[in-house]
Amino acid sequence: MFSGDRNLDLREVAKPFHEKLKKIKVAIFDVDGILTNGKVYWSGEEVGFNRFFHVRDGYGLKVLRNAGLHVGIITGGDSVGVSKRMRGLGLADDMIHMGDEDKRSAFEKVLKSTGASDEEVLYMGDEFFDLPILKRVGFSATVPNASMEIREAVDYVTHFSAGEGCAREVIDMLRFAQGIVPKVEH
Predict the structure, then answer these.
(1) Tally of domains in the chain
(2) pTM of the predicted model as reported, rounded to 2 decimal places
């Protein structure tokens, strides 16, 4: 279900955050409740539980990666489907962190591998175990249906729902702040 405003001008929405967004060199996203709607379904013994991803979010991740930003995920879940999706989008192995709800060590690994400081990181998460990272980074975002404490802790709450283009909304704000234009092949 689409819940975002199709007439939302993200260029205007991003303006108050330009200074923070201009510093971003690393963009990290939670999976369940951000890149997906949080629902899982059983795909059989070979794959296990799987999720639905929105193609707009996936393309946005590729746009950032192609622009030279480090793009990754930190998720408490561990799924073959998530791993295949992220690798299919071209995310580097050292930017895919799965299987631990205490995301702090994965975040430290990202900082070390990228050489980025906290203020150079954008993080998008929706759950209580995302709070330690959301409170540290240069720009933090969540979705409208996150808990009140999460919404209060972040810089920005998206108009789009989880799994329905919310990551792309934040990615586009980052693009506008940094002047990133997707390359279109002819």
Answers:
(1) 1
(2) 0.92
